Amino acid sequence: MSFIVGTSLLAVVSALACALPGVFVVLRRNSMLVEGIAHAVLPGIVVGYALTHDLNSPWLIVGAALGGLLVVLCNEWLIRTGLLTGDAPQGLVFPALFAAGVILISMDFQHVHLHTEVVLVGDLNLAAFHQLTINGVSIGPRYLYVMLAVLAVNVAFISIFYPKLKLGTFDAQFALVLGLRTKLLNTFFMFLVSVTVVTAFHAAGAILVISLLVVPAATAQLISRRLSTMILLTALFAVAGAIAGFWIAYVLNAATSASMALFYGFMFTAVVLINALAVRIRRYRRATASSVDAYRRDGAMSRLPAKPADALAVPMTREGTEAHDRPGPAQSPHAAE
Amino acid sequence: MNAVPIACQTRNLSVAYRADPVLRRVNFSVPVGSVMGIVGPNGAGKSTLIKAMLGLVTPLTGTAEFFGHPLDHVRQRVGYMSQSTTVDWDFPTTVIDLVTMGTYGQLGWIRRPGKAERARAMASLEQTGLVDLASCQIGELSGGQRQRAFLARALVQAPDLYFMDEPFQGIDAKSQEAMVHVLKDLSARGKTIVIVHHHLATVRDYCDHVTLLNGSIIASGPADEVFTRENIQIAYEARDGAEAFLATAV
Amino acid sequence: MDLIEFFGNHTFRMVFFGTTVIGLVAGALGAFAYLRKQSLISDVIAHSSLPGALLAFVAAVAIFDLNGRNMVSLIVGAVITGTLSALFANAIAARTKIRIDTAMAISLTVFFGAGMILLRFISNGPFPGKGGISDYLFGNASVITIADLVTSAIVGAVALTLMLVFWKEFTLRTFDPLLSTMLGFHARVIDTLMFTTIVIAIVIGVKAVGVVLMIAFVVTPPAAARQWTSTLPGMVALSGAFGAIGSGLGAYLSIAMGNVPSGPVIVLTLFAIFLISLLASPRRSVITAAVRRSRAREALRRELAGGGTEP
After folding, report:
1. By the 8 A CB rule, do B13 and B53 touch?
2. I need a labelling partner for C236 at 20 to 30 A (CA). Which of A122, A166, B141, C183 fits?
């Protein structure tokens, strides 16, 4: 496998491995908590690296991931004390852990040489450096297989627990009444997110790994009516963004994760704008259609039954009086609140 | 003691938020087949009472029993309809999916809902008059339709005992009609229903039993005996709303 | 290292006073972000000031032929992109079904990603004074010049003065947004002013502390101050004081410890102040609250469990 193919595959697999759990991160409103996790794993990575000299060591991954979980648990504990308001609990612990990691690096702790830029945005090419060979034939970067394993674990976890993850995310209280203890599932899920972050750290760094986790899922959420659709679209956006980002970086000679983050941002903004435009067109069509209807009725030119403007307007007319207090599918859902 | 079997009861149930008591020594029981209204002013602990019974809030003292057992042994027989404001209605899911969630408890941890579960969900949508909206995204529903979807989710479990938290809160006439129809049907089939209700004027329309609550039980029993002018006055400490109601209704 | 030796050294003095000014301003204004329950937006603003600071560098070098890393152009550039990122996050949350936390994550990564691409571009380009430009990430307090210190002190003083002038409006908007709108204060104007002061407080730290850790300067001091006081003037004063003390102490420790970057050490010092406040403040601490609550609950439990049933 040529270096460039292997590296671009690595970008795609890392993007997918992060984006899938990202769906639930976004729906649980944990995006900024993941920002915390991504910073908090740093000291674990530094110490782990000093001990194993291998960023892909399973010991390092699990150990550093526990550091990420620490942020989640501290956040819950700080909220429970009732002594802090707003989102402050999420912003208190991770800078301290991250600072500790930076200090360890700067003190040349056990001769760990991690460049600051690599810590923040990773280095895909460096990550892809160690090639795996079988009988002298390269089968791609070793790190690719590590990411594939994480992707497989994430896919397995999400498919096995899909109904419970969904219910626990949507309505945890109801799940509890049904006797499903989603709290443990939730903690385990956050641990898995943490593992994913640590593994992807090598390729995307502490800050841009959040982009891989959050942005494809958020883009998909804009246009999804069902969770299964959202997961499929998330995967699609993740892969498309990874390929585009990889080539942009290649051309510009920039960090792959940075150009991926930028491209994901463009994709998100484009979907927002296209979606808004579609809504406007639909609303315009409906407005013209209903004024035509009014004209027909008032002008008594025709006794033809009024037709709904389009397929999406159908539910509006189904229940007569109720149509008034329901926000139309075309409107922003926030109008309902 | 009453000869009628008991669907659920609490013994000395108290709940405190931090160190402030919300419920004090609540003892009440709901006979099988009755429609029990839990009535009281704002902050009386009505929702807290059913949440504590269902294990959503940890009680300070006391226990709750369902059909003579702790909840864990009889979960399949107990259904819960929470207030619709508790969830995110932008969540990417359809009405039929939402209702199917009611079957997850019976499915256990790993199994998926299949055709049988979908069919049952469809039947509950039929009962609540939401069949036409089955494939809508839940955010497209009106307030009343949201409540009906939650009712359908409780129905799909086919429990013997229903807990409903303010089911008539902020709903339109059509939804109210549909909801009352379902309640009457359940009652006719011998199911037991516990409703948290805050609208005094309509308590008698829905409930045959009443529990007046204000931090502790003021009175509990058949509506005719309990829902009296005196009791209401005690429960509401002669507040304005109750005054107006008392002047016109009882 | 004794204090005379410490303050006798020009670089050490600069580090000490530079970070103390940052700590003071960020702490005092962070109190408003904390009470508005929007602490995390400061993380977005800080990360997003990177592309602005770098664009300002390019503009200063290429167009005006100035020292690229002068404080004035850095502040202007950083304020612009920092503000844009906050507006972008709020616009996403207001106009789409995406929630604010995800909107903040999106805004942060897009702006920071752009910043990292710019950083690479500058490092590879023919820009004089580009060495050390990546210090904007984690800061480097030892490169603070007298001019930098004076600039950040003046800008910080302007932000603090704005806060004092609009004290009444800020207070009302923080505690009762609805009432302040009803009383006719233009909510938009006051919000803009308030967030401008917070943005200023953040960007003056970019050079010395770096964009990645600035959040700690804005979030930690008010969270610590809240444990000791419950009035707004008390909050602002104590939070500013914690910020200044933590920064000064951290700067001293980082120098005394040898070759350790000052930003991260200050962050740890601030965190220590927060932990002490949380665990030991007399009025609201975790320990006293837990003890009091469990005692009260136990008393209540005994009262309610005994003595049979109520009528």
Report:
1. yes
2. C183
Work out the minimum CA distance from B31 to partner chain A, whole angstroms.
21
For B64, phi then psi, to 5°, come to -125, 145
pLDDT (tens, 9 = 90+) of chain C, 311 residues, equals 677 777 778 888 888 999 999 999 999 999 999 988 888 999 999 999 999 999 999 888 877 767 767 788 889 999 999 999 999 999 999 989 999 999 999 999 999 999 999 988 888 888 777 777 778 888 888 778 888 888 889 999 999 999 999 888 888 888 776 666 666 667 778 888 888 899 999 999 888 888 889 999 999 999 999 988 888 899 999 999 999 999 999 999 988 887 788 899 999 999 999 999 988 776 666 677 777 777 777 777 777 766 544 43
Nearest to B44 by CA among B241, B242, B235: B235
Pairing of strands B35-39, B216-222: unpaired
Residues 97-116 of A with CB under 8 A from C: 98-100, 102-103, 106-107, 116
Is B76 touching C (CB cutoff 8 A)?
no
Q: Which residues pair with B222 in a beta bridge?
A: B209
CA–chain centroid gap for A149, Å, is: 18
Phi, psi of B228 (to 5 degrees): -105, 160
What angle is formed at CA B110 by the lines to CA B104 and CA B112, rounded to 5 degrees?
55
Q: Which helix (H) or strand (E) holds C202?
A: helix C187-203
Give A-chain residues touching B97 at CB under 8 angstroms.
Answer: 226-227
In 3-state terms chain B splits into helix, strand, coil percentages (rounded to 5) of 45, 25, 30
Question: Tokens 């090419």 identify what position?
Answer: A125
SS3 B215: coil
Answer yes or no: are the C-beta atoms of B43 and B239 closer than 8 Å.
no
CA-to-CA dists, residue B115 to A130, A159, B93, B121, B129, angstroms: 49, 18, 18, 10, 21
Closest CA to A176 of B58, B16, C91: B58
User: Is the sign of the CA dihedral A79, A83, A89, A95 positive or negative?
Assistant: negative
Coil, strand, or helix at residue B38?
strand
Chain C: touching chains (3 or more CB pairs < 8 Å): A, B
Query: Over the Cα atoms of chain C, what is R_g?
Result: 22
State the Cα–Cα distance between residues C305 and C283, nearest whole angstrom.
30
Kind and range of the H or E element at B3?
none
DSSP string, A109-166: GGG----HHHHHH--HHHHT-SEEEETTEEEEEHHHHHHHHHHHHHHHHHHHTHHHHH
ipTM of this complex: 0.89
Cα(A257)–Cα(A246) distance, rounded to whole angstroms? Answer: 8
Across B75-226, the runs of DSSP E, i.e. the strands, are 78-81, 161-165, 192-197, 209-214, 216-222
Compute the distance between CA of residue A281 and CA of residue A284 in angstroms, rounded to an integer: 5
What's the pTM value of the predicted model, to 2 decimals? 0.86
Judge: B173–A336 Cβ closer than 8 Å, yes or no: no
Q: What is the DSSP letter of C194?
A: H
For the stretch A172-177, contacts whose Cβ atoms lie closer than 8 Å and that sit 24 or more positions apart, written own/partner, are A173/B56, A173/B82, A173/B86, A174/B80, A174/B82, A174/B101, A174/B153, A175/B104, A176/B54, A176/B55, A176/B56, A177/B54, A177/B55, A177/B56, A177/B75, A177/B78, A177/B80, A177/B105
Long-range Cβ pairs for the range A317-320 (8 Å, 24+): A318/B132, A318/B133, A319/B132, A319/B174
As beta bridge partners, residue C219 has: none
